[in-house]
Write a structure and sequence with these properties.
eight-stranded antiparallel sheet; seven-stranded mixed sheet; globular
């Protein structure tokens, strides 16, 4: 059960809707954390406001079950500087959940259901009529197959136990595209003055969805989704080293605490960009070989 036997300095919350099909961290005034089983694996998620921020957390985090061995993991980051970014993030996630609920009832394949759900989320945010927008990054877990879907600059990563990055999304931003084209390396992009600019949002008529290739999850692979509050403050190699092994609870504590420290302590050698911070970590269980615990009967 969420929170059982743990001692975190955060509110531990397991929020579901009336049909128990949406697990959501709503991004309140206090940090929130949840530790649970979903999609045939273990998930831990965390969200908190930027330090010294006056308005509410504009991130929203969700895990949407899609049957006993599948789930849709989502982080939406309401656009800063735009009206009602928090509302846009919540609207996008709830619309995606409703669309997936309908698709599951119709026994539709998960990939198509997610694409339709993101398109529906885009239309729902546009229909708010407030000019608000949000990013949305999704990882679909379908048995042992993972696939990413991205709109904006929240990122996803799949890391093996030995530290190999098996999949990583690239931010939909000028610096992200420059890295992808080879004009910037990742370290330069992390310190670039235009790092905060984003070129793709839910809530716009030209929204587009970046779809990743299928990745087969092996034992102890770790799936990460994170808002730019993490990705703008920690180098990728630092994230990989922390999340590739050990308990998920320790990994999420380590990377979020490091990100929060860097947000409040500026350094010429390390990034420091205060922002709302949200992270999901997910692993499928390891099923080792059975060992014989007693001798077979003789004779």
């Amino acid at each position: 059960m969420p929170g059982a036997g743990n001692h975190w300095d955060t509110r531990e919350r397991h929020v579901t809707d009336a049909n128990d099909r949406l697990i959501l961290l709503e991004g309140g005034d206090e940090p929130e954390k949840v530790d649970m089983s979903v999609g045939g694996g273990s998930l831990i998620a965390y969200t908190c406001c930027a330090p010294d921020k006056d308005n509410a957390n504009e991130d929203a985090v969700a895990a949407i079950p899609y049957g006993p061995d599948a789930a849709v993991l989502v982080i939406a980051d309401g656009a800063g500087g735009m009206p009602q970014g928090r509302r846009a993030a919540r609207t996008a996630i709830s619309t995606l959940a409703n669309s997936l609920d309908d698709a599951f009832a119709e026994s539709r394949l998960l990939r198509g259901a997610i694409l339709d759900g993101i398109e529906a989320a885009n239309q729902a945010v546009i229909a708010l009529g407030t000019g608000s927008a949000t990013t949305m990054t999704v990882v679909a877990i379908d048995g042992l197959i993972a696939r990413t879907f991205q709109v904006g600059d929240s990122e996803a990563m799949i890391v093996g136990q030995r530290g190999r990055i098996k999949s990583q999304t690239m931010a939909h931003s000028p610096t992200g595209f420059a890295v992808e084209a080879g004009f910037l390396d990742k370290k330069e992009a992390l310190h670039h003055e235009d790092r905060h600019l984003v070129s793709n949002f839910i809530g716009t008529t030209d929204m587009h969805i970046g779809v990743g290739a299928e990745v087969k999850l092996k034992p102890r692979d770790t799936v990460l989704i994170a808002s730019d509050g993490l990705m703008d403050n920690i180098h990728a190699h630092e994230i990989v080293e922390v999340i590739r092994k050990g308990p998920l609870s320790g990994a999420i504590d380590a990377i979020t605490n490091l990100a929060k420290r860097r947000m409040v302590v500026e350094s010429k050698h390390q990034p420091s960009k205060p922002d709302d911070l949200s992270v999901i970590l997910f692993r499928k269980p390891y099923k080792g070989k059975r060992t014989r615990t007693s001798k077979p009967p003789s004779g």
